[in-house]
Amino acid sequence: LIEKFMAYRLEQPSWVRPGQTLAPASVNRELSVLKNLFREAIKNNFVERDPAVLVSKLPEHNARNRILSDDELEQLLKVAPNQLRWMIILAAGTGMRAGEIRQVKWSDVNLGEGTITLHAGTTKTGHGRLIPLSSELVEFLSNLPRHYKCPLVINWRGREYGSYKTAWKTACRE
Asked: What DSSP assignment string belongs to the chain?
């Protein structure tokens, strides 16, 4: 029954992506909610068994293959505010994810070796890795302002740089 419903949901229109159907990742989130609901219901003696326990998640193929052209990158850098511009430069030069960039501390940056260390648990995959830096990125990082109260490379007036999504959407529109 649940598998049938999941197949049905895959055919439903997406409200996030007009003209497309729901992605497997969206249906998997719904399945997770359902499993949590049944887990709580069992714990509180509302039901005896979980009909979703043997249902597997759908395979997700969330790979993105869109790469900005040099002109697009240049235009984006022109309109982005400073902190977002710095994130874009690091992302374009290293392939790091936005969440990884926002967590990098100055103690993770070795300008002499030209590396950034991403620690296990701070990455999407949970695995740490060493990010090599080009000489241009070493120079860029050397010239970034440092805030005496904040160990983060990308910060907003000494605090963690909050949500960048509004600034990103605005920069992309311009």
From this structure: -HHHHHHHHHTSBPSSSTTSBPPHHHHHHHHHHHHHHHHHHHHTTS-S--TTTTPPPPP----------HHHHHHHHHHS-HHHHHHHHHHHHH---HHHHHH-BGGGEETTTTEEEEPTTSSTTS--EEEE--HHHHHHHHHS---TT--BSSEETTEE----HHHHHHHHH-
